[in-house]
Design a protein that fits this description.
alpha/beta, 557 residues, five-stranded mixed beta sheet
Length: 557
């Protein structure tokens, strides 16, 4: 048998070639920074900010510089909405981007008309107009962002004018800075804790007596969480969840834009209590003003010697609602795609970088100083009977005076509307409401006297308060249209890790939008599969509005 000679092996480079110029550009941006894998997203932000996109040549260079595979860099860059990956031969995005929120409160306020008006007014070669999920400015809908400038009550005329004059930079509101906060007694409580005058056990007892619960959505008792984390062998870490992406929610933004050091002092006390070696503050990219405030005030803490340099590490999200789920957020902090982890183990035991991790919401930490200084009874007494504590309700929709309303736990939506929001808008009658943002379901006005709190009658109705985002609908709104909007949000924000959520959300949208009678059997089957089989709360809670549409709003089907 005749043996064929082997073909000479091609010894040339495989895959995308490395450009020396691109490598130098990336290295200049990263100068002086440690090349750690967990900083990948931060480095992608640097490139995006400098060049307006993530070109293939820069992604290749970043992979080379960080000693990562190109696939690893690409999968992270393409996961997040705020990164613009541009492949070879593709045109980069326009120099300026206007994002218009199309989530539920902005839909009610005319976001679709705004998008249509903008399309007729701007040059697409110079300005890119994009739909965007909730921007956390629901009380001043419709909301938009032009460049890094957040815009309330946006109109096409105003946005076009801002584009012409270049009014696209971050606008930071007035807030209580470090010196003013400290002059008013700030950080004295932290010092008492550090000096041993006030013990961790005493603070935990006070928080438990006050009934302080996690105010990001889950409502887990804050003191219990400290005890759990402390029970696991160190070293330990702490994370702060500032990824306030639930449609209708904006309370954390408001607190950080007014008095950021209350959250920072609460965080330092919590970190001391669990002996955390570092705090990772994860803040959503949709809040550029808050990010600038935090950079400035964390630097002030370091300069004053209250926090060691690097002890509070600010991390910038990149546009992914799923990172509000605590384990997905930890994955993002580690420089990866924000995919929720399977549980157990819970992050209190195996969390960030495999260490026991204390995770808190912004508002939860914001209350610690007041509760310890004024006492558990003070805070608990601010709630209604059987519902300890006061809550920050993000109220938007068809009310006259939307905004963050400080009101008792256990209040009803009818009381919120009448006593805190000056009633419904003129010409509108109360029809329905979301008690807890997109995830909490949609209930009719006939259930407007149910106490709003974790568990209780609300849970019996298949709803929950979650992040305390209340969106109010009127007789001029369609429950079906609202449900479609919410499901489109979930479809867009599904991380894609599990099939029931990835496919189920899209299938629900198509069934809801199909002409003719609804396929209720198909919707109910999907609901069951998504609830029983999805990895995390997104897929499990996404069917809530559909369930309530079929149960309570037959006239809108």
């Amino acid at each position: 048998m005749t043996m064929q000679a082997r073909r000479p092996r091609d010894r040339g480079p495989k895959g995308r070639a490395l450009e020396d110029t691109a490598l130098r550009e990336v290295q200049d941006l990263l100068m002086g920074r440690q090349r750690r894998g967990d900083l990948l997203i931060e480095f992608l932000h640097l490139i995006q900010d400098a060049y307006g996109c993530l070109s293939a040549r820069h992604l290749r260079a970043l992979a080379e510089d960080m000693r990562l595979s190109q696939a690893e860099v690409y999968e992270v860059a393409s996961f997040y909405d705020h990164f613009d990956v541009v492949k070879e031969g593709e045109a980069p995005p326009a120099p300026l981007t206007i994002r218009v929120c199309d989530s539920i409160s902005c839909m009610l306020a005319g976001a679709e008309n705004l998008l249509d008006d903008l399309a007729s007014k701007v040059d697409p070669a110079a300005i890119r107009v994009m739909r965007a999920p909730c921007m956390g400015r629901c009380a001043s809908a419709p909301a938009a962002r032009i460049g890094d400038r957040e815009v309330d009550n946006a109109t096409a005329e105003r946005l076009s004018e801002m584009a012409q004059v270049g009014d696209t930079k971050v606008a930071v509101p007035e807030y209580i800075g470090f010196e003013a906060y400290r002059a008013a007694g700030g950080y004295q409580l932290l010092q008492k804790v550090r000096d041993g005058i006030l013990s961790t056990e005493a603070i935990i007892a006070t928080m438990q007596g006050a009934g302080l619960r996690g105010l990001g959505g889950a409502g887990f008792p804050a003191g219990k969480k400290w005890e759990f984390v402390r029970s696991y062998k160190g070293p330990r870490l702490m994370s702060i969840n500032g990824d306030e992406g639930e449609p209708g929610t904006f309370k954390d933004r408001v607190y950080l834009e007014r008095d950021p050091h209350r959250t920072l002092e609460g965080a330092l006390i919590a970190a001391h209590a669990v002996e955390a070696g570092r705090i990772y503050f994860y803040m959503r990219d949709e809040y550029p003003a808050v990010l600038q405030i935090l950079r400035s005030e964390i630097a002030a803490l370091e300069l004053a010697g209250i926090a060691e340099p690097g002890f509070i590490e600010l991390r910038r999200g990149a546009g992914a609602y799923i990172c509000g789920e605590e384990s997905a957020m930890l994955e993002s902090i580690e420089g990866k795609r924000g995919l929720p982890r399977h549980r157990p183990p819970y992050i209190a035991e195996v969390g960030l970088f495999g260490r026991p991790t204390l995770n808190h919401n912004v508002e939860t930490l914001w209350w610690i100083r007041d509760i310890v200084e004024k006492g558990a009874d003070w805070f608990a007494g601010l709630g209604k009977h059987g519902h300890p504590g006061v809550r920050s309700w993000s109220v938007s929709g068809r009310v006259k005076n939307p905004g963050v309303k400080l009101a008792p736990a256990g209040i009803t939506v009818r009381e919120l509307i009448e006593d805190y929001c000056d009633g419904m808008q003129d010409g509108h009658a109360f029809k329905a409401y979301l008690p807890g943002g997109a995830s909490g379901g949609i209930l009719p006005a006939s259930m407007g006297d149910i106490p709003l709190d974790f568990g209780g009658e609300l849970a019996k109705q298949g709803a929950f308060v979650g992040s305390h985002a209340v969106v109010v609908f009127s007789d001029q709104d369609s429950a079906k249209a609202a449900t479609v909007n919410l499901l489109k949000f979930f479809q867009h924000e599904s991380c894609g890790q599990c099939t029931p959520c990835r496919e189920g959300t899209g299938k629900m949208v198509s069934l809801l939008e199909k002409d003719g009678p609804l396929n209720e059997t198909g919707l109910r089957d999907l609901e069951m599969v998504m609830r029983d089989s999805s990895i995390c709360g997104l897929g499990q809670a996404a069917p809530n509005p559909v369930n309530h549409l079929l149960k309570h709003f037959r006239e809108d089907i």
